[in-house]
């Protein structure tokens, strides 16, 4: 199984979508998704790729899908 690609800090807008459940996950991973504004599978938020957001994404890369916003 390959490791998900790490996201880098930039001025780009990122579209972050939750693709997996937090059931059975660690508490810090649940808290990270809530901090990103994701509550349910399929929820999507748009955030700037600043250091804080990138750190949160890299904490839960297996639970989210990240794309550059159009």
UniProtKB/TrEMBL annotation:
Gene3D superfamilies: Ribosomal protein L30, ferredoxin-like fold domain (3.30.1390.20)
Residue span(s) of domain Large ribosomal subunit protein uL30-like ferredoxin-like fold: 15-64
Listed CDD domains: Ribosomal_L30
Keywords: Ribonucleoprotein, Ribosomal protein
Keyword Ribosomal protein: yes
Tree of life domain: Bacteria
GO cellular component: ribosome
Family annotation (Pfam families): Ribosomal_L30
InterPro entries in alphabetical order: Ribo_uL30_ferredoxin-like_sf, Ribosomal_uL30_bac-type, Ribosomal_uL30_ferredoxin-like
Similarity comment: Belongs to the universal ribosomal protein uL30 family.
Subunit structure: Part of the 50S ribosomal subunit.
HAMAP family named among the record's database cross-references: Ribosomal_uL30_B
Designated name of the protein: Large ribosomal subunit protein uL30
Organism encoding this protein: Arthrobacter koreensis
